[in-house]
Amino acid sequence: MKGRLQDYLLLHFIVFIWGFTAILGKLIEIGALELVLYRTLFAFIILGVFMTVKKRDFVIGKKEIYKILGTGVIIGLHWIFFFASTKVATVSVCLAGMATATLWTSILEPLIGRRRVRLFEVLLGLIIILGLYIIFKFEFNHLLGLIFAVFSAFLAALFLVINSRFAVKHDHYTITFYEMVGAFLGTAVFLPAYAFWGPDDYTINLVGSNMDYLYLLILASICTVYPFSISVELMKRLTVFSINLTINLEPVYGIILAVIIFKDKERMSEGFYLGTLIILLAVITHPFIQRYRSQRRLKPPA
């Protein structure tokens, strides 16, 4: 019981750290692409040194490495759109859009896992769309940021569905190391391509301020290597219900922290908070309904 309680407290601590990630993204002055490039570079170097010192195994087979590297590319794209959202909008808008990750998971799991679509998930999805509509209506000036965040949530859901299969087969540090390498390589390829085909006024800027590098080191170590690796490990001991329910609190933690740190810059309209509340209620309701349905299936007939 004591071990399970420690796992729950650790999970909440990790989600709290993730809630702080968007704030760091807002504080770092370099662009979203350069930010992700440095984040993933620092992350896999730190993790590589740690694994070498602790004599962790890097060898898992070429086929598996390629799969995990590919998943890392998805993670890199997820972070690019995530931080782009904080740059063009606000932390609160970004996290409100990220709350739709559960909706995307409910759509992707049946497609990838080849299971039936659940009616209650479709209904919750419609409620989430209603919440997004309300946010769009009241925060139209942040439309691009919200679109980026919703697409980032889609990529996050895709990554989680894929990553859950790796967690049962490989060490969590090994998985995280190769995913960070994949994310770095994907960003390194995408960065010059975006500079060439992207907006005419965009130029690659890899030189940040001293504070940028400090924030990046915090982002790569405390907000990436540590929580990313531990979350994969917790997948082996905690139920999907517990993990999903707790991760849903990330936007709550993040929005509260953003209002405390940035004050008036993060204060949004009443319509924004109404729409966000609708999304969060639908998201939090999802795992409760899922567990209730599972218990009914397991309950023996009278």
Automatic annotation (TrEMBL):
One Pfam family it belongs to: EamA
InterPro entries linked to this entry: EamA_dom, EmrE-like
Domain EamA: 9-136, 144-284
Alphabetized UniProt keyword annotations: Membrane, Transmembrane, Transmembrane helix
Transmembrane segments: 7-24, 36-53, 65-82, 88-107, 119-136, 142-163, 175-197, 213-231, 238-260, 272-289
Protein name: DMT family transporter
Lineage, top ranks: Bacteria, Pseudomonadati, Bacteroidota, Cytophagia, Cytophagales
